[in-house]
Amino acid sequence: MALSRFRLRLTAGFAVAFFVGTAILEGAGYAYVTWTGSRYDFNERLKEAAAGSRIAIRREASHINVDSTVFDGVKQALRDLAPSKVAFVVYDSSGARLTMGGDSTMIAAIPGADALPDVGDIGTSSLPKGLDMRFAADTVRGAHVVVAATTDLLRRRQYKFRIRLAVMFPIVLILALAIGYSLTRFALAPIDALGRAADAIAPGELAGRLPLHRQRDELDHLALRFNRLLDRIQGLQEQSHRFLREVAHQIRTPLTLVLGEAELGLERERTPEEYVRVLRRVHAAAGQMTHRVQDLMLLARMEAGERPPLRDDVELDALALEATDMFRARARTLGQQLELHEIMPCEVTGDEALLREALLELLENACRHGEPGAPVAVSVRRDGASVLLEVRSTGEPIPTEPRLTDRADDTGRTGGLGLSIMRWIASIHGGELVIRRVGRENVVGLRLPTRTG
């Protein structure tokens, strides 16, 4: 199995943390042994040896007679540290050396009586071959007792300690890497389980979800977010399927009309007038299909949750005049007549192209489904803090839809595709689609907030 870079990174992090922690602990131990433990204990032993020498001299009640017994007492006091070399010197009250014992090199390095440290302090001196010497002094009957010892044993102990650290650190690092890599396999097992569960979810069947535990941890929260993502993807997939079905449904009828009229015109030789009539019917069906395609494109933007930027300062009165003028030829084709009723100067902030499309959709529905010969009236007026852009037509009541994606019959009757688009356009402008019945008239329009500032 190939090595996992993620596991290697986790292993490296664990090993570094473990190694640094071990190094800190061992360094602290080394410092304790070197400074707090051995050296402090060594100094205390020197002080005890000086005091022991003073006691031994006091036993010589009538005179100071330092012999081998005193020297043995000094060595006994330092026995626990087992120094390799010891020495002592006794000065009288005038500073002359009365007696001495031990290593001659150390005796020569012990300073005179006037340079001795105070009682309770430790003095140091350097010896040949890189050795260090420490000494302590005490007083008895006007005499000064100096006890000295070398620190070569401490240096050997420190050297052994450093060797142990040098050998131990690589071993600790290797063990940390091995243990860390094994632990990462255990730690990443839940993630592997989530990966296998995710692999089991087929692209075409998004009903499956990652398992969650009752007591949730970080991995459960990650799985929950993934499940929410699957919910959104599943919703988009279902939305896409609905949209594709809608495209097929909306395009089938006008495309069938185009093909039927074309086949009918090609069945036999026809006069130019007959070809013109066929082409007009084909043109009308193609125009209907073009209108449907435009509506579907707007519907696709709506289904995707798109919210175009609203940057235009739109004069609705001018827009109503423009759209009405553009639609007059279409209205005559449908056997309707357009009228302008109350047109008040009103301005809103929005997308001018979408608002124009909404007004043209209102006119299309009103002309297509209104009673023949009854006028279709356009009005723009203020209503408090809002603006009403309305189209009135006489006809049967308009059916409402329970959902934006519901559709009506193949003729595109109001209540289907057009109303869905107009609701979307109204909503992204902060307004609403208004449908009401006044007598025998259907009043359909957009209520939009007026521009502020």
| Rg over alpha carbons | 52 Å
N/C terminus separation: 67 Å
**Rounded average pLDDT:** 77
Which structural class matches the secondary elements?
alpha+beta
Identify the strand order in the major beta sheet: 2-1-5-4-3
Note the run of SSEs as H and E. HHEEHEEEHHHHEHEEHEEHEE
Count up the domains.
Answer: 3
Q: Let me know the largest β-sheet.
A: 5 strands, antiparallel
Q: Return the CATH architecture of the largest domain.
A: 2-Layer Sandwich
Strand content: 15-25%
Percent helix, as a range, is 40-55%
Strands, count? 12
Characterization of this structure:
The chain has 453 residues and is α+β, with helices and mostly antiparallel strands. The protein folds into three domains: 5-157, Beta-Lactamase; 218-300, Orthogonal Bundle (Helix Hairpins), CATH 1.10.287; 308-449, Heat Shock Protein 90 (2-Layer Sandwich). Helix content is 55%, strand content 18%. The protein is built from ten helices and twelve strands. The chain has helices at residues 5-59, 68-77, 104-109, 152-187, 189-199, 218-266, 272-303, 316-333, 352-369, 417-428, and strands at residues 86-91, 97-102, 123-126, 132-140, 143-150, 312-315, 337-343, 347-350, 375-383, 386-394, 432-438, 441-449. The protein has a five-stranded antiparallel beta sheet with strand order 2-1-5-4-3. A five-stranded mixed beta sheet has the order 7-9-10-12-11. Strands 6-8 form a two-stranded antiparallel sheet. A hairpin with a 5-residue loop joins strand 3 (123-126) and strand 4 (132-140). Helix 8 packs parallel to helix 9. The protein is rod-shaped, with a radius of gyration of 52 Å. It starts with a helix and ends with a strand.
